[in-house]
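step=encode ok
step=design start
structure_in=
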């Protein structure tokens, strides 16, 4: 009887371990690089926000916003857009984009990068197919100042897409 209980316990542990590995794998987020941004009428963006970690310094400002880009076939893509309006590029940025209506597995991580003065860059989440309405998207932007990451958030309420 003891061998059967031990074997059952080992089987349960293996099954639990496999389940945890599957859950961890599905919860991992995609990591993407920053790219050049060219907007058009398919872009629905919030207004520019000044990142609060750098808003009171003479080095300039990081502006950021959350955009949702739609296409004619019902596809939608969330984009974190950052603009360096300062004169320095010594403060790296990184971001996370997510659709709060979905679980954490739906977030996209934007790699740590230097945005040069005068440049605007975007971090594009994967395109999703939505039915008529794209859910709200949220961008968490991190700016590193003095060795510390500072977070600020922007939220786009979502847009209507082609049905």
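sequence_out=
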């Amino acid at each position: 009887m003891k061998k059967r209980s031990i074997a059952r316990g080992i089987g349960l542990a293996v099954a639990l371990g496999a389940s945890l590995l599957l859950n961890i794998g599905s919860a991992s987020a995609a990591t993407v690089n920053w790219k050049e941004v060219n907007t058009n009428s398919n872009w629905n963006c919030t207004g520019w926000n000044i990142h609060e970690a750098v808003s009171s310094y003479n080095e300039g400002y990081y502006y950021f916003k959350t955009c949702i880009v739609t296409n004619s076939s019902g596809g939608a893509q969330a984009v974190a857009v950052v603009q360096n309006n300062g004169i320095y590029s010594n403060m790296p940025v990184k971001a996370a984009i997510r659709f709060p209506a979905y679980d954490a597995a739906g977030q996209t991580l934007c790699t740590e990068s230097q945005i040069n003065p005068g440049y605007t860059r975007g971090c594009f989440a994967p395109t999703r197919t939505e039915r008529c309405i794209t859910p709200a998207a949220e961008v968490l932007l991190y700016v590193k100042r003095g060795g510390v990451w500072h977070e600020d958030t922007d939220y786009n309420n979502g847009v209507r897409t082609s049905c």
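step=design ok
step=annotate ok -> Confidence is low (pLDDT under 50) at residues 1-27.
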